[in-house]
Amino acid sequence: MRVVRTIADLRALLRPLREAGKRIGFVPTMGFLHEGHGALIRQSAARCDATVVSIFVNPTQFGPSEDLASYPKDLERDQNLCLEAGTTVLFLPEAAEIYPTGFQTHVEPGRLAEPLCGRFRPGHFRGVATVVAKLFNMVEPDLAFFGQKDFQQTVVIRRMARDLNLPVDVVVVPTVREADGLALSSRNTYLDEDARRRALRLSEGLLSAKAAFEAGERDGAKLVEIARKPLSGVDSIQYLELVDTQNLEPIQGRVDRSAALCVAAYVGSTRLIDNVLLSPPASDLAASAS
Ligand code: AMP
């Protein structure tokens, strides 16, 4: 595994690989890696000839009162995880390498960035889209891997890649969870024992709703209610919404198309997000179309 800190060194390393026809996979991260990131890296390593992982805590996607300054970090552990998961090149740029003096051009996502997290984190997806577009231009990957855990992010980035004709396939990897269901997140490190117990309510609710869906429940309001029940233990729910996976518009009534049930909530001072996908089987879709 090679570790590089500049765009010039990154390009110099990747050029011969690309010229030799190697398939390049890319996993952008903000570090403090866990097995969720590990799953993305492993999938890239399995499907590509070379895997680039970036660790960059992107200032432009944090709001003024968010945790940019205190975002957790452990570079030595991250390097070990990257190596063990099959990383070829680890890219560790400083902020000045990504945003040199005079930087002023951004990628502005459209309507997909408005609901859900977009409502509570103004400018967040503009920051995400901008840095991901820049990283795509630096790495020029064939495939880029993103976690289902950040569902809206995957939708915004897929749309951006299409809208800007970025020649990359966006691959979405299922959410990796702890044995008890809690979605892995770098921010879980902020949770003390009591908060960790309450954080579990998010996945409990979502996974119960998914189980009900799989048992045949199709009433959207009922599914949301099932997910809401355990949430009385969390401090404040920002949103709990059932949305169409294509356009992120709320689903009212019957779930007759591919849906995502998404939640964001504070547990103590830690903001957590999670989601489950609810996809009616093809036979259901045919029935509702007829
Ligand atoms: P982050 O370092 O939080 O910006 O995440 C980097 C990538 O890892 C994003 O594509 C996330 O969606 C993904 N990721 C984070 N947590 C998980 C998880 N529990 N399962 C799968 N992917 C994840």
Written account of the structure:
Helix 7 links the parallel strand 5 (143-147) and strand 6. The longest helix is centred in the last third of the chain and has 22 residues, at 193-214. It is built from ten helices and nine strands. The protein is of the alpha/beta class and 290 residues long. The strands form two sheets. Strands 1-4-3-2-5-6 form a six-stranded parallel β-sheet, with helices on both faces. A three-stranded antiparallel β-sheet has the order 7-8-9, covered by helices on one side. The protein has helices at residues 7-19, 35-47, 75-85, 95-98, 117-120, 124-139, 151-163, 193-214, 220-228, 282-289, and strands at residues 2-4, 24-29, 50-55, 89-91, 143-147, 169-173, 236-244, 259-267, 270-278. The chain folds into two domains: 2-173, Rossmann fold, CATH 3.40.50; 186-289, Pantoate--beta-alanine Ligase, Chain: A,domain 2 (2-Layer Sandwich). The relative contact order is 0.13. Helices cover 39% and strands 19% of the residues.
Task: List the topology elements.
Layout: E1 2-4, H1 7-19, E2 24-29, H2 35-47, E3 50-55, H3 75-85, E4 89-91, H4 95-98, H5 117-120, H6 124-139, E5 143-147, H7 151-163, E6 169-173, H8 193-214, H9 220-228, E7 236-244, E8 259-267, E9 270-278, H10 282-289
Parallel strand pairs: 1-4, 2-3, 2-5, 3-4, 5-6
Antiparallel strand pairs: 7-8, 8-9
Helix pairs in contact: 6-7, 8-9
